[in-house]
């Protein structure tokens, strides 16, 4: 059975097999997402991204859906990729942090505001912020806090992260994840 979806603007086709075929997955790359790779439908999206395509911007923290380090956008909605099975992806559009354009104002704002320390949480934070700004271009501080509540950071104390999101919101002409599909 073939499973087809879009990853960071590239069409992906995967051969779904019933066995645990994780060992066969390490043949793809971010630029070669049309490769047909045998994968088990129960493989985690997190593992497909990191091990299959080398998209290591997506991090594993808790592995249990609690920290947001593995967050990606699926059809523009923030989802923890450690909780998504590859077999669920047919017909969807997945955006990992590598799919966010460099020109996205969040990139400059996180740097300008000094919002990053160790960086483990930042890909998920940025995608959570992108999902927020796509649906709410001018959020309040409370709205930003609520939107990022599922993304944990052990380093920054959050203040500069919230400031970066508000800073990005003030930047005109922000491209969205939808523009990258
Ligand atoms: S690694 Fe997925 S939510 Fe923590
Ligand atoms: S910057 Fe280290 S966990 Fe957030």
Low-confidence segments: 20-27, 174-181
Main structural class = alpha/beta
Q: Give the count of helical stretches.
A: 5
The rounded Rg comes to: 16 Å
Please summarize the sheet with the most strands.
6 strands, mixed
Query: What distance separates the N and C termini?
Result: 24 Å
Average residue-wise pLDDT: 88
Ligands, ions, cofactors? FE2/S2 (inorganic) cluster
Strand content of the residues, in percent? 5-15%
Shape: elongated
Order of SSEs, N→C? EEEHEEEHHHH
The count of DSSP E runs of length 2 or more, i.e. the number of strands, is 6
Helix content: 25-40%
Q: Biggest sheet, strands in spatial order?
A: 3-2-1-6-4-5
Strand and helix map with partners:
Elements: E1 2-7, E2 10-16, E3 37-39, H1 45-52, E4 71-74, E5 77-80, E6 93-95, H2 105-112, H3 122-135, H4 141-147, H5 159-169
Parallel strand pairs: 1-6, 2-3
Antiparallel strand pairs: 1-2, 4-5, 4-6
Helix pairs in contact: 2-5
Bound molecules: FE2/S2 (inorganic) cluster (2 copies).
Characterization of the model:
With 181 residues, the chain is an alpha/beta fold. 27% of the residues lie in helices and 15% in strands. The protein has 5 helices and 6 strands; from the N terminus they run βββαβββαααα. The chain has helices spanning 45-52, 105-112, 122-135, 141-147, 159-169, and strands at 2-7, 10-16, 37-39, 71-74, 77-80, 93-95. A hairpin with a 2-residue loop joins strand 4 (71-74) and strand 5 (77-80). The structure holds FE2/S2 (inorganic) cluster (2 copies). The site of one FE2/S2 (inorganic) cluster has 11 residues, from loops.
